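User: For my dataset I need records formatted as: sequence, then structure tokens, nothing else. Please produce one.
Assistant:
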Amino acid sequence: MVELKTERLTIRGFSFVDAAFILRLLNEPSFIENIADKGVRNLDDARRYLREGPLASYERYGFGLWRVGLKVDDSPIGMAGLLKRDFLDDIDLGYALLPEFCGAGYAFEALSAVMEYARRRRNAKRVAAIVNQENDSSMKLLRRLGFEQCGTARYPGEHTELSLWESVEE
């Protein structure tokens, strides 16, 4: 099981114990607006999301979205990690934080650790990221992480074009 530590954060795999947190995070207006409405409305939905999402990804790929918690007391503040999407050639960087933890550098800290993991432990030469085209703060964060915009992408069956970014290690 993956566990990453930074100066202020602990990043580890989700478990069903995290269902209440997932219920809250996935129903934040910023999550629904910038990522998607995952249809998680109760604890059973949250457990289903964990089982079919992060936990299935750990089993299939050895990585996925991980729980981000404050190191000082392990309280959950978000998620960050790597995804393998069928419509992208490369692994994909993803994250979401509770709104009260945005703007304090936690996303950059967590994603820097995830990128280090991708490069050193997964030998990923290329990492992609997809972003809602109106999400300026995420695009600024990707630039800071060394990503460059390289085109657009869309989920199969969807009409909304997303901004496609990549980070290539030479």
